[in-house]
Structures are given as C-alpha cells and as structure tokens.
C-alpha cells in the first residue's frame, strides 16, 4: 500500500511583509501602502503573494502591516475573510502595535517576525515562508519548500536570473555548482555570474524558506544584537551564508506560466513608470502575465457591480475600446479608448479620448478631455477639456511627469491647478 504524499505547504505558513510605503510610487502611496496599490483592473498588489500561497496549498498566513495600513487591512478583511479556523485555516493581520515598547514599532523585516513569535508558535507549523507583499508574479511555493527539505538548507532564498549589467540594483547571490550561496552582496558594482552562465546573476526576490525552530532561535539571538538592523537581507541571510547553509532557489523552477514556452514573469512595480507599463502590458494580444488562468487564479475582493456599458454611436462620439481592459461597472459614454486599462466603476463622457491610460477605480473623465500615457488615482474627477500627454512642460507645472513620460494625476493636483 502506497503511503500518501503530504504536501509540505500543509505544514507551512506564509508570513507576508506588507508594511512598506513604496515611496518611488510617489503620490500613489500617499494614502495607502505599496502592497495595497491597485493592479490589473480589479486586484491589489498583495493579492499575488496571497494567491500564490493559497494556490500552493498554504492555509495559514499572517500579514505584517505598518505604513498607512487602513486600505490594506480593509481589503484583506473584505477579500480574504474566507479562511475558517475550524478547518485549521488562518489569516491574521499584524499591525505594528508597540508590543515590545511604546517607542518600538517594527524595526526591520526580521523584527516584524520577532515581535510576533508567539502568534507563529500558535500556528504549530514546521516551515515559515517569508514573502514580500509588493511584487507581481505567479509561483508555486511547494516547489521551493521541497527543494529546501531535500537540500538540507538552513534557509532557501528565492532568486531571479537577471543580466549581470542589470544586477547592481539588487541584492545578489554568488553560488557554487550545487546552488549553495557562498556570498550575499547588496547592490554590488561588479555582480558575480553563475557557474553555468557568467553573463547572468542571481538576484534575491525577498522570498525565504526556513524551518520554524531554526528561524525562531535565530530571531531571538538577533533581537539581542545591538549592532543588527534586524533585517532579513541585511543581517539574517548574510549570517547564515557565513555560518550555515544557504541555498538559492531559481524562480524559473517554480514560476507558474500559461504555456511551457512562456517567459518567466516577475515585476517590481515600484516606480510610476514600471507600474504604468505592467498594467498597459496586460492589454497585449498575449500578455506575459495570464490573469485568465483558471488553474492558478488571482483571488481578490470583487465589488458587486453591473457589466461595463458602451453607449453612443455617432461620428466623434462613439463609445469604443480597442486593445484595452475595461472592468465591471464602467460606463464608456461616447469616448474613444485605446491601449488602456480601466478599473472598476470608471465613467467617461462624450468626445473624450484615452490612450495609454491607467484609470484607478471611480475615476470620472469629463467631456472633450484628452489623456495620453497617464495614471489617474482613485476617485479623481477629470475636468472637461483637460489635455494631458501632449505638452510635457505644461503637464509638469501641475502634475507628476516621470522620466519615462508618464503623467500621474491625483485629485489634490487638480485642485491646486484649479485654485491656481
């Protein structure tokens, strides 16, 4: 009789680090943390890490929050409240709550776990998967967990394969032929190659697998070190590289793709340009990120809204959308839309035109407005006849214009423009 194979994910928990602002997203994170920023028409960035964990079979999760967490907490309460404790499923939200001292919030990524050791203990798990909550990707964590166990590693580090000339922006790994990490370098000027290809470098994804007893003791020791910044990338991982066994896991081995020959997809949408491009790329005929995959869905909170509606069919006043994504609840009233992504409940009015536009929920576009290569924050009321994307110098007087030529518009910017 064959013994049933137990998935390691059933003995694991996901600890998601979601406390960062993401200041390079500028005004998009004035009111919300980066993991709570909208993405892809109806999801939030954090939904990708949580969905990967859920689809991998992990039913115990914790989310550590800190910076302006209300939007993130509300989203998780509305969209991720289906876990049932009686089935041994948990999703805990762990705001920095001055548990240690009145003046001590989360001091670093490792400290966020240290301050919640008692909560992780209560989960009664063998393995802890540390995840960043602010990247866009699809990954089967079970594959990484199995490598961790089979290699006998103290820590397994998720790694991207990047060209050497681009690797200076990352924390990178030097490895031997067995994928054991021999050094961890933070943004080096001359990144190391890999044993099988000197032209590429392994860069950290901020994803780590530990056995919980090992990590637990390591965190207790780290908390007592006055010289530590209590950070996984800066302190914990380099310590294990020096004194233990750290192993690299290549993302290409566990990336979930829509076809065997599809490229490996991972994006840090941490700048306005990167955020705009990753959203607009979804409008491609065959986008690299497959949001239509029913085998590996991205779960989220979905408002109950009617289907999108397109009205008017006159010359210069025709509700159309070409190579675009238009979410539920949108009303496209006599507007021409091309290569754009519209989130839930966007309303556009007659004679307006959108091209290369990312409109977050509840935006209203006034008549005769022309918007090109823009990101419009949630709830913005675009006035009639506003033209953006045709004169960068004029746009820069009132709005945030990026190096890549994308214009970010918030309601505060429009209000200052009207007042001025």
From TrEMBL:
Gene that produces this protein: glgC
Entry EC no(s): 2.7.7.27
Domain of life: Bacteria
Subunit structure: Homotetramer.
Transmembrane segments: none
Family listed: Belongs to the bacterial/plant glucose-1-phosphate adenylyltransferase family.
Catalytic activity line of the entry: alpha-D-glucose 1-phosphate + ATP + H(+) = ADP-alpha-D-glucose + diphosphate
UniProt entry keywords in alphabetical sequence: ATP-binding, Carbohydrate metabolism, Glycogen biosynthesis, Glycogen metabolism, Nucleotide-binding, Nucleotidyltransferase, Transferase
HAMAP family: GlgC
Pathway(s) served: Glycan biosynthesis; glycogen biosynthesis
Protein name per the record: Glucose-1-phosphate adenylyltransferase
PANTHER family membership: GLUCOSE-1-PHOSPHATE ADENYLYLTRANSFERASE, GLUCOSE-1-PHOSPHATE ADENYLYLTRANSFERASE-RELATED
GO BP, sorted A to Z: glycogen biosynthetic process
Annotated function: Involved in the biosynthesis of ADP-glucose, a building block required for the elongation reactions to produce glycogen. Catalyzes the reaction between ATP and alpha-D-glucose 1-phosphate (G1P) to produce pyrophosphate and ADP-Glc.
PROSITE patterns to which the protein is assigned, alphabetical: ADP_GLC_PYROPHOSPH_1 (PS00808), ADP_GLC_PYROPHOSPH_2 (PS00809), ADP_GLC_PYROPHOSPH_3 (PS00810)
ATP-binding keyword on record: yes
Pfam assignment, any one: NTP_transferase
Site (Could play a key role in the communication between the regulatory and the substrate sites): 66, 105
Gene3D superfamilies given in the database record: Hexapeptide repeat proteins (2.160.10.10), Spore Coat Polysaccharide Biosynthesis Protein SpsA, Chain A (3.90.550.10)
EC class name: transferase
GO MF annotations, alphabetized: ATP binding; glucose-1-phosphate adenylyltransferase activity
């Amino acid at each position: 009789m064959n013994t049933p194979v137990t998935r390691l994910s059933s003995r694991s928990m996901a600890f998601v680090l979601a406390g960062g602002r993401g200041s390079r997203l500028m005004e998009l994170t004035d009111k919300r943390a980066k993991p709570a920023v909208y993405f892809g028409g109806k999801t939030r960035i954090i939904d990708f890490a949580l969905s990967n964990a859920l689809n991998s079979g992990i039913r115990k999760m914790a989310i550590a929050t800190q910076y302006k967490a209300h939007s993130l907490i509300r989203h998780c309460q509305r969209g991720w409240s289906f876990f049932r404790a009686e089935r041994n499923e948990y999703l805990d939200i762990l705001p920095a709550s001055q548990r240690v001292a009145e003046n001590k919030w989360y001091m670093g990524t490792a400290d966020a776990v240290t301050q919640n050791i008692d909560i992780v203990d209560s989960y009664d798990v063998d393995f802890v998967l540390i995840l960043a909550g602010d990247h866009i990707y699809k990954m089967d964590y079970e594959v990484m967990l199995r490598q961790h166990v089979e290699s006998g590693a103290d820590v397994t580090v998720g790694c991207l394969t990047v060209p050497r000339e681009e690797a200076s922006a990352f924390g990178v790994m030097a490895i031997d032929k067995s994928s054991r990490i021999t050094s961890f370098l933070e943004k080096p000027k001359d990144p190391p190659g890999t044993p099988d290809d000197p032209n590429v470098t392994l860069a950290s994804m901020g994803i780590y697998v530990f056995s919980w007893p090992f990590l637990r003791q390591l965190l207790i020791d780290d908390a007592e070190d006055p010289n530590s910044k209590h950070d996984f990338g800066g302190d914990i991982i380099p310590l294990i590289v020096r004194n233990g066994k750290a192993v690299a896991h290549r993302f290409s081995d566990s990336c979930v793709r829509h076809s065997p020959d599809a490229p490996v997809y991972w994006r840090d949408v941490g700048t306005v340009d990167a955020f705009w491009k990753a959203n607009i790329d979804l409008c491609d005929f065959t986008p690299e990120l497959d949001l239509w995959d029913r085998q590996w869905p991205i779960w989220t909170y979905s408002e109950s809204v009617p289907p999108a509606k397109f009205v008017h069919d006159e010359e210069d006043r025709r509700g159309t959308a070409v190579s675009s994504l238009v979410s539920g609840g949108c009303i496209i009233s006599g507007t021409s839309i091309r290569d754009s992504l519209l989130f839930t409940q966007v309303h556009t009015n007659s004679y307006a035109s959108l091209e290369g536009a990312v409109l977050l929920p509840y935006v209203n576009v006034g008549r005769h407005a022309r918007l090109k290569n823009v990101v419009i924050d949630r709830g913005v009321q675009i006035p009639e006849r506003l033209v953006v994307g045709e004169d960068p110098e004029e746009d820069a007087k009132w709005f945030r214009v990026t190096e890549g030529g994308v214009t970010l518009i918030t309601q505060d910017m429009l209000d200052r423009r009207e007042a001025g």
